[in-house]
Write a structure and sequence with these properties.
The protein has 203 residues and is of the alpha/beta class. Helices cover 49% and strands 15% of the residues. Strand 1 and strand 2 form a beta hairpin.
Length: 203
């Protein structure tokens, strides 16, 4: 059964370049997962070549700007020698937020292919669709649902592990608090013991 699944994946990759590049984005997401970050990854493709890669490093780098999309945009721009990413496509495992969607419009990228949507924070169709707003001077074509199950699974894996870790930490804190409560307090010293015998007192 596993061999048949692997064969279907290989066939899909050969027949559909969107799956090939989304799998590359998933590899980036796995790097984020290994750091304990929300596993989001992306790649930017020009022609048939990956020119930028990125994965979420927000907590690791201690900056709001360390989103996968922004890192990939920066790398692609450096690689191509231009801030304009015309003719390029981004493949990203999770629907971009408002910051990243705005940056994609500003970069003049042609198209964004999304693995899974983000109903709580996505701005490529969930809450807003910043990418295709006709009011802008540039619109980004949006395609969704490529390798959706795989993109959802890595996120679900992260949040399962997070819940388990938080549960263990909570149990540990309770155990430590219970241990502290069971430890007897030291006996209070008497005034004489604390201050010594009064001057002139015969023992």
């Amino acid at each position: 059964m596993k061999e048949e699944t692997d064969k279907r994946k290989a066939a899909g990759t050969a027949a559909d370049p969107r799956e090939k590049y989304m799998r590359a984005a998933l590899k980036q997401a796995e790097k984020a997962l290994a750091l304990g970050e929300v596993p989001i990854g992306c790649v930017i493709v020009s022609g048939d070549r990956i020119v930028g890669r990125g994965y979420n490093r927000r907590n690791t780098s201690k900056t709001t700007l360390a989103h996968a999309e922004l890192i990939a945009i920066d790398k692609a721009s450096r690689k191509l020698g231009d801030w304009r990413l015309e003719g390029c496509t981004m493949y990203v495992t999770l629907e971009p937020c408002q910051m990243c969607s705005g940056s994609l419009v500003q970069s003049r990228i042609d198209r964004v292919v999304i693995g899974t949507m983000n109903p709580k924070a996505g701005c490529a169709g969930s809450i807003l669709n910043i990418l295709e707003m006709p009011e802008w001077n540039h619109q980004v074509e949006v395609e969704t649902g490529v390798l959706q199950a795989e993109c959802q699974e890595i996120l679900q894996q992260f949040f399962r592990q997070l819940r388990q870790r938080l549960k263990k930490e909570k149990a540990l804190r309770r155990a430590e608090a219970a241990g502290a409560a069971d430890t007897p307090a030291p006996a209070a010293a008497t005034p004489a013991a604390a201050e010594g015998a009064a001057p002139g007192t015969k023992e």
